[in-house]
Amino acid sequence: MSSILPGSELRVADICKALEGRVALRAPASPELLLRAEQELNLRLPDFFRELYGSFNGFAGYDEKSWICLWPLERVLSETIRDESRGDGAIAIGDFMVVSDILMGSLADANSSVSLLHEGVELAPSVAAFFARFLAGEFDF
User: Considering the entire predicted model, what is its pTM?
Assistant: First the structure.
């Protein structure tokens, strides 16, 4: 059963299907990697993120329409870039190359915003809104 993204009707299966042919996806994260991420980040991944990373472990390259790249968990863990000013444990989860910035989000809470680290700009008020805007082409150039 596909998890529904909180605050949305968007399911992980919908996201995967919409990404087909748009961007190459990495192989799913193993259960061991999901557990390692939870241990190293000291959090419990919500069901949505567990299913998302269990379906694909980030993008294999950049989305050519938006130049967004969602990082695999291994890179999220190795970069350990945090935005303490947000107060929700936001960490680096990808790149937004058009503005040469880093995507920030909280893997502990799928209802937290997605923002840019250096510009301090909120791209979406939640992960649901981010994926909805991304899939609708709102970040495309």
Answer: 0.85
